[in-house]
Design brief:
mainly alpha; Cytochrome Bc1 Complex, Chain D, domain 2; 11 helices
Length: about 240
Amino acid sequence: MRLFQHLRAMALCVAIAMLIVIAGCGAPHGQPRTDSEVLAPNQIPDFATLYSENCSACHGAEGKGGAAIALANPVFLAIADDATIRKVAAQGISGTAMPAFAQSAGGMLTDAQVDIITKGIRSRWSKPDALAGASIPPYAAKSSGDAQRGETAYKTFCESCHGPGGHGAQKGSAITGGSFLALISDQDLRSLMIAGRPDEGMPDWRSDSAQPLTDQQITDITAWLASKRVSNPGQPYRIHP
């Protein structure tokens, strides 16, 4: 009787072992399974991965902002259409910290991947109803700016946070320094004034005052800030010959 039970137990063990071997033979030894293959960088189709690896370092996790403007900002997405976002992502902005990401412009992403990023930003973070009834200034300036008028408007709307002359204060950073202005375009300055920086407590164009900034005032302040750019940023003093 004991011999029979022993043989039966051995047969059961052999059967289990064979099932394990058979289950492990679905793919030849040394060949990766389909679900374990690593995609080449230009084949990645996932927005979360593409955004994390190419955009989050500057624009923040989940588009909440960092060194660059927050992309998950309904105001920004209300003024920047898909064509604008795609162009900037693909071609970058010359003379600023925004690089080109499309392969056609020297970057690493395919046109399809740039499209995925563009559509993903819109589908995840746009809130069309958030600005219902608001008269929002356009993305691009429609007229030329006047630096003198811009200085006056700056004192009214911006000085309380960014300090006299834009040199910084307790509530806001310096915005007329050579290094800052060397890394930001006029369009980015305009976009920041319209969309604000919710991640840093900076209000949008409606500001903290009773009267929102007008399109022309935004254009004029941009012109005033642009007039503060220097040809050799980062020099703390004049170098004499």
